[in-house]
Amino acid sequence: MDFEKILQELPAQMRELCGKGRVATYIPALARVPANKFGMTLCRVDGGCYSVGDSEERFSIQSISKVFTLSLAMSRCGEALWRRVGREPSGNRFNSLVQLEYEKGIPRNPFINAGAIVVCDMLLSHLSNPKQNLRDYLRVLSGGFDIDFDEEVARSEAETGFINYALANFLKGHGNLHNDVDEVLDLYFHQCSLALSCSELAQAMTHLASAGVSKRLGEALLTPAEVKRINALMLTCGTYDAVGEFAYRVGLPAKSGVGGGIVAVLPGEYAVAVWSPELDPSGNSLAGGAALEYLTTVTQRSIF
Amino acid sequence: MDFEKILQELPAQMRELCGKGRVATYIPALARVPANKFGMTLCRVDGGCYSVGDSEERFSIQSISKVFTLSLAMSRCGEALWRRVGREPSGNRFNSLVQLEYEKGIPRNPFINAGAIVVCDMLLSHLSNPKQNLRDYLRVLSGGFDIDFDEEVARSEAETGFINYALANFLKGHGNLHNDVDEVLDLYFHQCSLALSCSELAQAMTHLASAGVSKRLGEALLTPAEVKRINALMLTCGTYDAVGEFAYRVGLPAKSGVGGGIVAVLPGEYAVAVWSPELDPSGNSLAGGAALEYLTTVTQRSIF
Amino acid sequence: MDFEKILQELPAQMRELCGKGRVATYIPALARVPANKFGMTLCRVDGGCYSVGDSEERFSIQSISKVFTLSLAMSRCGEALWRRVGREPSGNRFNSLVQLEYEKGIPRNPFINAGAIVVCDMLLSHLSNPKQNLRDYLRVLSGGFDIDFDEEVARSEAETGFINYALANFLKGHGNLHNDVDEVLDLYFHQCSLALSCSELAQAMTHLASAGVSKRLGEALLTPAEVKRINALMLTCGTYDAVGEFAYRVGLPAKSGVGGGIVAVLPGEYAVAVWSPELDPSGNSLAGGAALEYLTTVTQRSIF
Amino acid sequence: MDFEKILQELPAQMRELCGKGRVATYIPALARVPANKFGMTLCRVDGGCYSVGDSEERFSIQSISKVFTLSLAMSRCGEALWRRVGREPSGNRFNSLVQLEYEKGIPRNPFINAGAIVVCDMLLSHLSNPKQNLRDYLRVLSGGFDIDFDEEVARSEAETGFINYALANFLKGHGNLHNDVDEVLDLYFHQCSLALSCSELAQAMTHLASAGVSKRLGEALLTPAEVKRINALMLTCGTYDAVGEFAYRVGLPAKSGVGGGIVAVLPGEYAVAVWSPELDPSGNSLAGGAALEYLTTVTQRSIF
After folding, report:
1. For residue range A53-85, what is the model confidence (pLDDT) as tens digits?
2. Which pTM value belongs to this model?
3. Which structural domain range is residue A276 located in?
4. Which domain CATH number covers B281?
5. What digits encode the pLDDT tens for the residues B289-302?
6. Which terminal residue of chain C has fewer beta carbons within 10 Å of its beta carbon, N or C?
7. Residue D238's beta-bridge partner residues?
8. Which residues of D touch C89 (CB under 8 A)?
9. Are β-strands C213-214 and C219-220 bridged in parallel, bridged antiparallel, or unpaired?
10. Cβ contacts (< 8 Å) between A233 and chain B: which residues?
11. Does the residue C75 lie in any domain?
12. How many CB pairs under 8 A join C and D?
């Protein structure tokens, strides 16, 4: 597979989508990102990486962080995690209170906001220094030694995050939050504010394409069973309420963020990260999704 | 991979689950199937098949038929199909009217009852002799020349299928059914009554494991893109409201039926069919799911 | 209270609303009723009646019939009726399947379609000749000896009533319909097709304003307790999903129909019927509601 | 009507219900109220009052306070109030987030928690000293010069009120809260903590039985139109999700609280307050509802 050639073709193609989506504007730091950014990095499990466009520019990874907090929580809490959060697609908007109410405070899965807030709560209970531990985990995974939170973004999230406050209080009211609402949300808003580049994200995902082993670190970060499970969750719950559409078109386990990033893996072959800030109506990067669809179409390789 | 050995181990293991699920009892023909049946057949894409237990006994395939009606409809209607039915997991019970009402008569996906009824409606509009055409399609795919409807089952379904009548009338009231309610449901109840054995079902699924090509027939039945899409739909929508759980534990695109059957594929490697009548609370075969989980666990191979 | 003068003022006032609502068009017989019709009759409990406009013209009473089928059913089944239908406002569209599904086939109240269909089912079980018995009940109550079903309307309702077929099948599927779906709906569509004039309807309602006693017939048709209950149900459930609005503005127990009629009572004082075909967005007669609001405002008398 | 005699009969009758309901236990101050308390006061519009049992003992009026905050808000904001809160029964649990989400942050009515929180927000915007103004309003209405908040109750409500925090944040997130969440909820928790006796509450309600005029104060507090509207809202929304049942059995506009109090009026005749801490499953006082049903049954007088 000539990944280099495929990636080189993308920026021109993606330019046609420019202006057809909408950059997230609910906080100033996201609103001011230029709409025409496009970057992508693909790392093969055997070590070779291919990049194109703005692949070295850091952006707000937002919900992509939920893959990493889930990984951390799975390694700390094991199966006990699933007593407090489900693993079914939600069939509803990612911040829906409706389902949470019908299901008595047990979020559908760890990738909707309510579920990710519960995961934060577990990390708070299990880590000595949750924010730093999480940041350092990303540094190690990605090799980006100066990866950090964007404090402006974290502050903006906190100031405008009334729906997340509503979710967290609702979880607390149903007994599914053990720590203080404010502490949990502080961690949550910080995880969303983490800034990484495509090349850092692709690196940070490679172990999910290689049965849990990081070639770069020379060690197993997760068991094969854990990897299978995280990938299954990405496939069924990773792209908001477009998971069916995404599986149908792209066919890779993936997780997207409202900052315009998407990470995906083809197990046994590669991890990939793509970034383009304009979103489609379901909240996934418009050009990012199209680039991944192109990738799996021309290579004729997906998990299906 | 020594599939033969793996399959031989299963019946003994599955015996432990006997009595822990519940056989479907809503119609007499299903209720009287012995609970302790267990059969399984795995067919490799290169042609070798492995069977164990009651793999030659025919059973009511029920919702498994939805894979085949969808395949037929995709080949006849193409992308137009998706204007009348969605492709997202439902997050609700398979016969839920709630979602259908909120979404104005567009079923979430072709594997929930409402969606399968819309697919039937399309087949009625596109096929000259829908019931026979469907039956013959299964005969060709499986190689079972005498595969047929179980008229007793079809009649029982019609007599007790008030919720399906409700769904069809609701679809009709929203303009998403072009033929008569009774005609559409007659086809629907017949497709559910088709009786096949595990070995026939595994054969009928092999092209979904080999990019659309049937080795036995020596021809391409579907394009690679169509196969990718059907497999994606099975993964995200194929096992009622346990799709997340199933992806997490088993990690294969699969479709289950209330008769206790499950079909699944590992693209590029094998198609598999398993049958055991006792169901878990989500309506999937208890031992069938467990057998597939064992298979992907010991082989350390799934799509993830 | 000079009711004569108040009624005389209404047609001119109501003319201003002409063109601001929409006549029901789902069946031809309703669609062709002239939009500018307006009639009203008020009958005092002491016997005096006042009429204005098209008060002698018969129209399709539609859901207003549900008051009379409920009265009949209460007199035949007593409290047992409430095991199969609730008495709470629905908070949802009058033909909603959603609530019915969440509440396992027990309709919220006898004035939503599902509830009225269950009431029909009870009448079928308790009356020797349900259609004629119902028609004759209306003849006696109203004094209109030639009141009858409009067979064209009944037929149209049956031909287009897919949502009602869906509701009835859903009820049957949940065990809350004892007779055949088609028989129950035949009675239901016929009750909706009954054609009465405002003066006949006002007469037919007077006993609900006078503790159950019909002056004209010289007998008690209902007990005071039954009257209180029917009036309470009209107030809390009688005007689709605008019951709060209607209570707030008008302040009378009332039942409306999609044909543009509304009946209401001020207990101890009067019964009133008004008709004007244009409907507001909630499905209640626009001018009819305005006329009743005017009536209770200028007289400064409502139940509140 | 011999109200004195009727009231004297009640305590003995109500004793039979003792132990059949459940005292609210979500905060300590409510949990420790003796279950066997029963008090009632009825004040005729002409001035005579009748009391029985523990009618002079103050209790936490909880949601009954919503009648008084609504009255205050209506007099300050007029019809503008209804742009931010609806006036339809909810058909759902009183603290439901589901409906609020479907309806984009506009609460169904001012008596569900979300609606009362919006009313608090308006009072905060319109009153110079909201808490004291509200308390003093109650003092004037009831004649209880030392009526006050129960600070222990207010504090407990704040400490355990996660669902109310969820509601308020959700409203804020939808732009339907203009002041700080904490300030609004502080007022809300205080209004719920107001402690009054039955005789004080009956006094405070008399103007709602006499077209807005307080005989005791010798002045009109509300217009007849405002009274009609508040009474209509109590009837359609005042008793949680049992409004239909309550209208059916009792037939009076009423507002209940989780402290076991219920206030009601028969316009033109009397205001009544009853208190008994054990609640039925819908959250209304069990003996309180039964006492009011007895009252309207033996007097054969209700609004219907």
Report:
1. 999 999 999 999 999 999 999 988 888 999 999
2. 0.91
3. 3-60+195-298
4. 3.40.710.10
5. 999 999 999 999 99
6. N
7. none
8. 88-89, 91, 236, 243-244
9. antiparallel
10. 244, 247-248
11. yes
12. 109
